[in-house]
Amino acid sequence: MYVLVNEGVKIEEEGKQLVIDCLTGKVIHIEVDSIVIEVNDIGYLVYCANPYRFQESLHQKITVYTYQHVREDILRLYGFLAREEKRLFEKLLQVSGIGPKGALSILAVGEPQMVVQAIEEEDEGFLVKFPGVGKKTARQIILDLKGKLPEFLPSYADDGTAAGGKTANEKQLNQELEEAMEALKALGYMERELKKVAPALQKETLTTDGYIKLALQLMLNG
């Protein structure tokens, strides 16, 4: 059952616990690992896989789908642009050794279809590229989730990558680099500065966040 609380906040009732299902409001601030979305004069801190994807929506009204993580000492919201991303995030949390931070790092590099492709093809090499994911964890992801993601398979099959090797993964990584460059431009860095570090960045396989951090380090070191 769903109820609306303070228009813009959609809450799902799970047993006796109320969980924030989504937020509709304006993105008013972006950090390296999170955004702040304002709903009825309340700013909600939401951790995201790639906050810079929200750069184009800054100060615009959008809907962010949220997962509410509750522990004795923590209450955090994790946000996604699509329910598909949120569902895969929840699936990854079911894997032994994967927490919210690890699940976010996986989604930061791979679109849901890319991650499903790697799992279905037992592509450990792709999975171990994510921060905090070693061979043991990659194997656990495959063991726990292969064949158990039917809701993602139609779109995975339709994207034409099932028989195409890692071409789609490579395209996704190029997109991460492009998003990092756009984020750095938004932070005020000049085109000539970015061109100097671009060759070094292109040699790496990183998340958008990783590219940004490396670029800042390279520019700092001259």
TrEMBL record:
Residue ranges annotated for the Helix-hairpin-helix DNA-binding motif class domain, each copy included: 90-109, 125-144
GO molecular function: ATP binding; four-way junction DNA binding; four-way junction helicase activity
Protein location: Cytoplasm
Record Gene3D superfamilies: 5' to 3' exonuclease, C-terminal subdomain, DNA helicase RuvA subunit, C-terminal domain, Nucleic acid-binding proteins
Region entry Domain III, spans: 168-222
The keyword Hydrolase is assigned to this record: yes
Keywords tagged on the record: ATP-binding, Cytoplasm, DNA damage, DNA recombination, DNA repair, DNA-binding, Helicase, Hydrolase, Nucleotide-binding
Major localisation: cytoplasm
Subunit structure: Homotetramer. Forms an RuvA(8)-RuvB(12)-Holliday junction (HJ) complex. HJ DNA is sandwiched between 2 RuvA tetramers; dsDNA enters through RuvA and exits via RuvB. An RuvB hexamer assembles on each DNA strand where it exits the tetramer. Each RuvB hexamer is contacted by two RuvA subunits (via domain III) on 2 adjacent RuvB subunits; this complex drives branch migration. In the full resolvosome a probable DNA-RuvA(4)-RuvB(12)-RuvC(2) complex forms which resolves the HJ.
Domain notes: Has three domains with a flexible linker between the domains II and III and assumes an 'L' shape. Domain III is highly mobile and contacts RuvB.
Chain's role: The RuvA-RuvB-RuvC complex processes Holliday junction (HJ) DNA during genetic recombination and DNA repair, while the RuvA-RuvB complex plays an important role in the rescue of blocked DNA replication forks via replication fork reversal (RFR). RuvA specifically binds to HJ cruciform DNA, conferring on it an open structure. The RuvB hexamer acts as an ATP-dependent pump, pulling dsDNA into and through the RuvAB complex. HJ branch migration allows RuvC to scan DNA until it finds its consensus sequence, where it cleaves and resolves the cruciform DNA.
Protein name: Holliday junction branch migration complex subunit RuvA
Organism: Evansella caseinilytica
